[in-house]
Every structure is written in C-alpha cells, then in structure tokens.
Design brief:
Helices cover 52% and strands 7% of the residues. The chain is of the alpha+beta class. A 4-stranded mixed sheet has the order 2-1-3-4.
Length: 209
C-alpha cells in the first residue's frame, strides 16, 4: 500500500482509548510503522504536551513539517488521507454519515465512561455518585442503541465507526467490567467478539488488559 506519509510523532498514554483508536486505524491502513510514540503524562504540568497542544490531551500528532493535530477524529481522518487503499472514512453519501454517526456514538461512550472513571477516583467524601450514575446511564443507552444497529455495524467494509465502537466497548470492559453488557446485548457482543480478534485490536490493547 503506497502512501504520501513521512514519520510522525504521537504523544500518547498506553491506557487511552482514543490513542488505541488512532493506532488501530493506523495499523489497519498500513501506517503504524511511520508513527513514533512519545510517552506522555497529561497530569504532569511539566510534561511537554502543554507546549504543543494547548488542551494538554492525548492523542496529539506532530507532523514532520511542524503542524500539530488533535484530537482522535481529526488525527484518524488525516491518517486516512495518506494512503491509497480503501478508506475507513467513506467519502460521501449515506455510508459516510453512518460511519461518522457511529464514531460519534463510540466517542460519546468514551467521554461518559472517562468522566465516570475520574469521578470514581476522587476521595470518597468528595465523590458525587449521581454524576457517576448519570454517565454510566449514557453508556448503557448508547450500547442499547448499538445493539439495535448491530446489522449496520456488521455490514460493508471497515470504517472509522466500527473502529471507534470497538475501542469504546473494549474500554468499558477494561474499566467497568462489572457492567457485563454482553449478556443483554447478544448481537452486539457477537460482532464485538469478532472485531476485537483483528490483529489491529489485539496488538493495541492497553497494557493491563
């Protein structure tokens, strides 16, 4: 697969599901070997991430010409523009909007799950359980919708929607194993089991998974 890409630097955290999304995408389109991963601690005010991304978030992609790209939807679509193979971002029409909607739903699951996870790390006396419950309910609602749309996930070629949803479900299993969503969402679970066996997913699991 030919590309127009040069070496890029990805500021990353090994447990970030958004980083996993970027690396799964890069692996699927044959660009992973062009990405140099730079370990980043977003909680450390002295980490250089703040000098290249004003939001001090991962993933952040540094291009050879000095341009900086963030966050994961932007990075993934940029990477998808660099190769000559099938696109994971469909170019137009209903397939594009379906893939982007699935990406938004997957990213929304991650946004809510991370908020719940961070709240759970606060000292117990400062923790607001109704906030955690609200975020996890968003996750459950989104998973229920994905179950209803499982045929759309399974159809067609590989898209950014499928990648994002798979990374989101993987993160729920990683951080909220007690949710046990698979039992009540059998079609989605069957799709996820197959998708998560792809080498791109297996080779980009978080280290504790």
């Amino acid at each position: 697969m030919s590309t127009n890409a040069s070496t890029m630097k990805l500021r990353f955290s090994p447990t970030s599901p958004y980083v996993r999304k970027v690396m799964v995408t890069a692996t699927e389109i044959g660009l992973a070997d062009l990405i140099e991963k730079i370990p980043t601690n977003t909680q450390n005010p002295d980490d250089p991430i703040g000098k290249v991304n004003p939001l001090a978030k991962v993933p952040t992609l540094e291009l050879e010409d000095g341009r900086i790209l963030f966050d994961s939807p932007v990075i993934c679509e940029y990477l998808d523009s660099l190769h000559d193979g099938p696109r994971v971002f469909p170019s137009a029409g209903a397939p594009r909007w379906q893939a982007l909607q699935q990406q938004a739903l997957g990213d929304g699951i991650l946004d809510a799950a991370i908020l719940a996870m961070l709240e759970g790390r606060r000292p117990e006396e400062k923790r607001w359980q109704p906030w955690v419950d609200k975020q996890l309910q968003k996750v459950r609602n989104a998973i229920a919708q994905l179950e209803a749309q499982s045929d759309e996930l399974a159809g067609g070629g590989l898209t950014i929607g499928q990648i994002t949803v798979a990374c989101a479900l993987g993160y729920i299993d990683f951080r909220f194993a007690g949710e046990q969503w698979q039992a009540s969402h059998p079609r989605l679970a069957a799709w996820y089991q197959g998708f998560s066996a792809r080498p791109s997913m297996v080779n980009n699991q978080p280290p504790e998974a």
